Amino acid sequence: MKVRTRFAPSPTGFIHLGNIRSALYPWAFARSQGGTFILRIEDTDLERSTQAAVDVILEGMRWLGLDPDEGPFYQMQRMDRYRAVLAEMREKGLVYPCYMSVAELDALRERQMAAKEKPRYDGTWRPEPGKTLPALPEGVQPVWRFRNPIGGKVVWDDKVKGRIEISNDELDDLVIARPDGTPTYNFCVVVDDIDMGITHVIRGDDHVNNTPRQINIFRALGQEPPVFAHLPTVLNEQGEKMSKRHGAKPVTWYRDAGFLPDAMVNYLARLGWSHGDDEIFGREQFLQWFDLDHLGRSAAQFDDAKLRWVNAQHMKLMPDEALAVLVKDLLAQRGVAADARLPAICGLFKDRCDTTLALADWAQRFHADVQPDPEEVRKHITEGVRPALGMLAKMLETCPWTKDDIAQAIKETLRATGLKMPQLAMPVRVLVMGTAQTPSVDAVLALSQREVVVERLRKG
């Protein structure tokens, strides 16, 4: 059996990290098994679905490299197929029309709750041998309900939660088509999964309650259900379910904030799955390791500091030339043109950065005007150090422009003036880079342009 998985988001809000993890695992499982990964957009909620939300789904998946093998398919473009299956089910007696009004349903629920019973449809319009149905109300379009089995259990072995059993008597007859004939969520999902040959459904555990209903529809249509794996919720840093309402950011925000896609995949993979104690790994290694047997059962909690640490580790491991390509694009967006020094600059500063945006901030100091922090100027640029700055500027005018020769010029200035290294290095950093906190001053100057360094030291 060839593995076929799917990611089926609803475009009713901007997809966040908790959502995209439900794309990562089916994508990874399909890739690890040589299978097929399908993208399906469940856009039947016309009031809440937006094209902007669809765009974020597509852009986010493209950025993370979670490219589908098939799709995207849109449920709204499959309405004829759903209606055809509904017609078949009507012919076979698997569904029946229900004329109970919303007001009658509400009254029924109130009576059940007053009697401390579980609110559920009571089967008033379900045809049974020897049963007399109520008179048809005039001018009322019925909903269509699925004839759920009576008695017995729905049982499945969930790859995360283990064996789950639900009594059929707990399930009422589900509405699968509205009065205007439009199908409902649980029905569309089953038809789609059958038509697309889905073998494994890997999704959030907020769908567990839908699963027994969907399994019964699969079997009524003569199909065995797929394997299910229901992933625990992703919580935000406050311990609440991650959601837009609770401050979750769209996936594309992380792209724009300077995070690396491979670092995001690494971090998201660990939000509910593990391979021993391995923390940092590449995409290829992840796909070699990934299986459904090591999915966690407990809710995972998002941690921004941990994400930034993972991103920083991936930046350190990334070749300077590859990082420079990303930083060059960021600088170009700011109207700053980078030059051939950029890979070396990235190499010098990447250990200090947790995003490519932070790295671009450093690189910009080498390619554009710098405005030193006034507080640091007052602190470090004193009358006592100005002669040394002038002397160093004079020496740097003519010395070979290498790290070692610049270091030698600094040492000679210190000898001649009697200053200690911090007393000279700090002012030089402030004037050249705008801040006193940089890597080794000789390395920073060697990557700077001679004329710029000399001019800034003289102005100091």
Characterise the protein shown here:
- By secondary structure, this protein is mainly alpha-helical.
- Among the domains are: 97 residues, Glutamyl-tRNA Synthetase, Domain 3 (Glutamyl-tRNA Synthetase, domain 3); 50 residues, Helicase, Ruva Protein, domain 3; 86 residues, Arc Repressor Mutant, subunit A (Orthogonal Bundle).
- Helix content is 46%, strand content 11%.
- The chain is built from 19 helices and twelve strands.
- The strands form five sheets. The chain has a three-stranded parallel β-sheet with strand order 1-2-3. It has a three-stranded antiparallel β-sheet with strand order 4-5-8. It has a two-stranded antiparallel sheet with strand order 6-7.
- Helix 5 crosses helix 6, helix 11 crosses helix 12 and helix 16 packs across helix 18.
- The protein is elongated.
